[in-house]
């Protein structure tokens, strides 16, 4: 379960902050597409940054299942464990 | 150390797709050493699959298909990832008497529901009896198949584990080859039925005339295999001409576009296609000094197609990569559409991009005449440079017709109609949609607008999107491109169309996807867009700022203006101003990467 004091969560927040419209708080349940305006082009940039930062490969097929910031953090955690 | 397949066969004579079927073409290619190669997201080779091995594995899988409860001629949906498994399954269908239906991928955050709907629509339309995909998408595929005719739904591994049986007879001459979904909405997808005759005829024309393929050619591609340009241009045509291909997954290209050029450079690719935006993405991402590290000098055909060709973006790429040995004369503008299998016309090899600069004045707007303007006369006039897409390939004919179907002389803008050996006979099980585009005289109405000049085709836009204001023709692309240049707006963020208002007057509407959260910034953007449209079209436009992802795209990444207009008229597209302060949950429309045709 992702919490706001989680290290990976805070790091990912640092990467997605630029997408957040004014007034939107970054929480595990914040939605990537609708709350943060991460469109398909931005999504690819974000995935690349995450891959480079953690030296992991994000399976693109799983993006459709990633709705929230918390989902994304869990995916990163899983990939780090499997590395 | 894994070695990619060689570029040319040493002993096997080169044949340009003179086969009756796709299976026969692969049988021949399998006698040589060439094949397909798959590269990782970082541009390292992951798999080399010689055509000989592709054939063996496809034959082996073909023997499992009867055990999946299928009958000969049944349709098989296959998720078209850029992987060996997709190609093996696609060719297994050819050898095993089944009709493959390539299915798209989804790469949107939270796009699952819309993706499942899209897959279901296609499985239903194709009346698919089986659906195959990679393990990671098994759940979505299972969900999509609920309520469809698909009795076998599973992974490549599950299919391969079925008991072997006597395979059905291979798809023969005169039979279907595959079904291509390229247009239509999620609920009413339209699948082009491509026959063996159509694919071999189109590949032959592309190989002999369009590209003049020869031993020593090598193809590099990041285009998705669920689109005609990727599947026909960069997979089936190479297989029918024994040419080696180096694949980069579309998703890898989207993350790291430079991987395309890295692989092309290292493998000495000679043939590679992209829509304009692929070149644009590379030019934008090219960091200082990076261009010098590539060697693009072997690249003799840089094909361009799939969307309106934008010459300025191509100039930018050519300038940026001149240091890598890229030669702008390699640019090869082309025109085609899935309804004709793929290609219809190519410009001349080794001549680069040729533009036709025309006057956008009264003659163009009112009489649809494309009068040329010499550069020295352009001053003070509204002009527009369109890219010339070449002459029809031998065996193909292009006629520009008026709305009543009468042929028009050169430099008259009208509907682009096509005849040739690879036209579809219809959309699969959709006579109504077929009748709308297949004309009584056997020609196809492409739905595109254009004109001919010296026997060469110039495309100006889509006919159904044409905006007519007070008798003047306004091309929505023009408005969209201009607005995309406004600060804060991106390519693909804008849709322009006209609605009929009071007194039957047409009213122009410009919809812009807006990422700005601040009200003052939004108002500034609104004013700038309004002013831009005013400057360009000389018309007052209603400007609607909508949240990102409000606009919809076809599976091939083309903006659907018709959908935008319908949403607007229904009141579903609402301005940010009218939305509650906390953004309401937005529709999660599956919007694939805007790639390829």
UniProtKB/TrEMBL annotation, chain A:
Domain Carrier: 3-80
InterPro entries assigned: ACP-like_sf, PP-bd_ACP, Ppantetheine_attach_site
Keywords annotated in UniProt: Phosphopantetheine, Phosphoprotein
SUPFAM superfamilies assigned to the protein according to its UniProt record, in alphabetical order: ACP-like
A Pfam family that the UniProt record links to this protein: PP-binding
Domain of life: Bacteria
Keyword Iron-sulfur carried by entry: no
Protein name: Acyl carrier protein
Organism annotation: Marinimicrococcus flavescens
From TrEMBL, chain B:
Gene Ontology cellular-component annotations: plasma membrane
Recorded coiled-coil stretches: none
Keywords, comma-separated and alphabetical: Ligase
One biological process term in Gene Ontology: fatty acid biosynthetic process
Transmembrane found in the keyword field: no
Similarity annotation: Belongs to the ATP-dependent AMP-binding enzyme family.
Protein name: Fatty acyl-AMP ligase
């Amino acid at each position: 379960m992702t919490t706001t004091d989680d290290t990976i969560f805070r790091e990912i927040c640092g990467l997605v902050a630029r997408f957040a419209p004014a007034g939107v708080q970054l929480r595990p349940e914040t939605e990537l597409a609708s709350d943060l305006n991460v469109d398909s082009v931005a999504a690819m940039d974000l995935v690349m940054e995450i891959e480079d930062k953690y030296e992991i490969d994000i399976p693109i097929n799983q993006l459709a299942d990633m709705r929230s910031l918390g989902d994304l953090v869990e995916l990163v955690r899983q990939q780090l464990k499997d590395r | 150390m894994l070695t990619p397949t060689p570029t040319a066969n040493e002993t096997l004579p080169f044949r340009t797709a003179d086969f009756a079927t796709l299976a026969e073409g692969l049988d021949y290619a399998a006698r040589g050493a060439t094949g397909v190669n798959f590269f990782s997201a970082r541009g390292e080779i992951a798999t080399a699959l010689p055509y000989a091995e592709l054939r063996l594995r496809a034959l082996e899988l073909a023997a499992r298909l009867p055990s999946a409860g299928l009958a000969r001629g049944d349709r098989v949906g296959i998720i078209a990832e850029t992987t060996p498994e997709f190609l093996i399954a696609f060719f297994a269908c050819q050898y095993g008497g089944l009709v493959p239906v390539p299915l798209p991928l989804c790469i949107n955050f939270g796009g699952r529901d819309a993706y499942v709907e899209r897959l279901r629509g296609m499985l239903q339309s194709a009346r698919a009896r089986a659906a195959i995909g990679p393990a990671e998408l098994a759940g979505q595929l299972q969900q999509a198949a609920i309520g469809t005719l698909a009795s076998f739904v599973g992974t490549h591994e599950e299919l391969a584990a079925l008991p072997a049986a006597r395979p059905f007879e291979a798809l023969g001459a005169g039979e279907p080859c595959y079904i291509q979904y390229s247009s239509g909405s999620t609920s009413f997808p339209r699948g082009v039925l491509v026959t063996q005759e159509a694919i071999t005829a189109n590949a032959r024309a592309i190989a002999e005339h369009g590209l003049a393929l020869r031993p020593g050619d090598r193809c590099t591609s990041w285009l998705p295999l669920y689109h005609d340009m990727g599947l026909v241009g960069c997979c089936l045509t190479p297989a029918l001409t024994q040419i080696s291909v180096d694949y980069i997954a579309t998703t890898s290209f989207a993350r790291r576009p430079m991987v395309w050029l890295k692989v092309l450079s290292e493998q000495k690719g000679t043939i590679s296609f992209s829509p304009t935006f692929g070149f644009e993405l590379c030019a934008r991402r090219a960091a200082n000094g990076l261009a010098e590290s590539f060697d693009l000098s072997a690249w003799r055909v840089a094909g361009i197609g799939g969307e309106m060709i934008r010459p300025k973006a191509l100039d930018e790429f050519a300038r940026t990569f001149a240091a890598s040995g890229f030669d702008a004369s390699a640019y090869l503008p082309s025109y085609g559409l899935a309804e004709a299998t793929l290609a219809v016309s190519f410009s001349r090899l080794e001549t680069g991009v040729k533009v036709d600069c025309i006057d956008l004045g009264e003659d163009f707007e009112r009489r649809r005449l494309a009068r040329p303007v010499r550069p020295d006369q352009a001053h003070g006039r509204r002009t527009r440079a369109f890219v010339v897409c070449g002459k029809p390939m031998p065996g193909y004919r292009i006629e520009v017709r008026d709305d009543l179907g009468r042929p028009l002389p050169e430099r008259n803008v009208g509907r682009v109609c096509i005849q040739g050996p690879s036209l579809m006979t219809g959309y699969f099980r959709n006579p109504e949609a077929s009748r709308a585009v297949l004309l009584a005289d056997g020609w196809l109405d492409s739905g595109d607008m254009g004109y001919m000049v010296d026997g060469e085709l110039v495309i100006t836009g889509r006919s159904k999107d044409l905006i007519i204001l007070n008798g003047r023709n306004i091309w929505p692309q023009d408005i969209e491109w201009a607005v995309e240049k406004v600060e804060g707006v991106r390519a693909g963020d804008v849709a322009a169309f006209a609605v009929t208002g009071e007194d039957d007057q047409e009213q122009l509407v410009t919809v812009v996807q807006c990422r700005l959260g601040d009200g003052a910034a939004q108002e500034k953007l609104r004013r700038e867009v309004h002013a831009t449209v005013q400057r360009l079209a000389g018309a007052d436009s209603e400007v609607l700022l909508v949240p990102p992802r409000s606009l919809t795209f076809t599976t091939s990444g083309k903006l659907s203006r018709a959908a935008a207009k319908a949403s607007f008229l229904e009141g579903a597209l609402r301005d940010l101003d009218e939305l509650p302060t906390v953004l309401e949950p937005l529709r999660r429309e599956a919007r694939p990467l805007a790639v390829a045709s």
